[in-house]
Amino acid sequence: MRRALVVGINDYPGARLYGCVNDATNIAQLLSSNEDESPNFEVMLMVQDQRKPVLRARLLELFSGDDEMHLFYFSGHGLVNEMGGYIVTVDCQRNDEGISMDDILTMASLSKARQKVIILDCCHAGAMGAPALMGNGTAVLGQGVVVLASSRDTETSKEVAGMGVFTNLLLKALRGGAADIVGGVTAGSIYNYVDRGLGGWQQRPMFKANIARSMNLRRVKPVLDVGELRKLRVYFPAMEDEKQLDPSYEYTAKEAVEENVKVFKALRVMQGLGLVETIGEEYMYFVAMNSGRCRLTPLGMYYWQMIKEGRI
Questions:
Q1: What phi and psi values does residue 6 have, to the nearest 5 degrees?
Q2: Do 180 and 219 touch, CB atoms closer than 8 A?
Q3: Which structural domain, as residue segments, surrounds residue 127?
Q4: 131 band by pLDDT with thresholds 50, 70 and 90
Q5: Reduced to 3 states, what is the DSSP secondary structure of residue 235?
Q6: How far is CA 257 from CA 25, 117, 246, 264, in A?
Q7: Angle 101-110/52-62 helices, nearest 10 degrees?
Q8: Residue 110 shares a structural domain with residue 255
Q9: What is the pLDDT of residues 168-180, one digit of tens each?
Q10: Do residues 168 and 296 both lie within one domain?
Q11: What b/e string do you get for 33-54 counting C-beta neighbours within 10 Å, with b at 16 or more?
């Protein structure tokens, strides 16, 4: 089972926000299913009663049990003081602004789920697990914990046109912008996507993890059918092999052979995805017509190994 608690707060007294509920609603909708509409997370969306005791109870409920994955997403106000970082709740008051990020991290670290993902879109989100705020100079992330934060602990997080800048990129990443060749979207690939999408003078996202293996947060349609991808080991029986081509692979040549033409089309698709590269020629057409060779790229070798190990 995969469970997600998604929280968006707009109605802060005296400091209203405008895009958080919308952001949370969109995130909840995407996380609930994969692109092929298969079930993904069982999502609890909190956009109304977000008082501190209610939210704390939901967090404790989320991080209970031994599920496959627990995910917490928060969009709202965040603050940092000499005691650390906090997500701010609607019933905030001076010296009791909300729930400590350290407490949330402890809940996640104690969870028996295989992986626990915390995604924060709030000011000072990077205070989650920040060494300078932990007292002993070390950031304590339990086994299987992943933190994806919208900004450093010293930075604010921006809203533009009624949407969080970070969550706008997060949504695009979950829709496929951060997907790998087989359609998997992980927290790490999301971070890379968001980091590239933000300019050098904008807020900087943070990624912290204590995991042995990445797990998909969502799946989208693969850019290459998995069955076709597995043929890498057919075309290249050994990782270092070079594939010999000739005019029989090019459909416009008089020597064209139907079966070879099918292989050549597949190789051209793989070349476009960065899995295969030509040797001594710029275009695959000339590799075939001049009886040249092609080989795996480093990325192709990576997927070749994944296939060999039965991970794809």
A1: -120, 120
A2: no
A3: 2-219
A4: low
A5: helix
A6: 53, 51, 10, 10
A7: 20
A8: no
A9: 999 999 999 999 9
A10: no
A11: ebbeeeebbebebbbeebebee
